[in-house]
Design brief:
Blueprint (H helix, E strand, L loop, with lengths): L1 H4 L4 H17 L3 H13 L3 H14 L4 H13 L3 H18 L6 H16 L1
Length: 120
Amino acid sequence: RSAMRAGGDPQAAQATESRLKQLIAREPSAPLYFSLGNLYAEQGQWRDAQQAYFQAHHLDARNPDYAYNLAVGLEHLAQPKIALDYYRKALELASARGGAHFDSTRAEQRVKQLSASAEK
């Protein structure tokens, strides 16, 4: 996230992306994939963001923030049914583990909206 917040400098974002990819190549980890996903999301590159979030979730399936961001990415890619599953998982993990950094009220709203849409 830091590259885009630092003035929205595309060169800084590109440098950050390169650095994250180098670190991932050396030693893949959920936090690195999550950071890469956030960078892509801030740039509106949702397909790449979703793939990075999926890798983060795959490496640490107990982290509620990884499940939540994966849900957001899936929704941006017009996959609401799968997104719904991950929103539910994120809320379940947040309830069980605590420490989530996403807005649980917002996640609950998305679950209600996507559930209602799925029933139609």
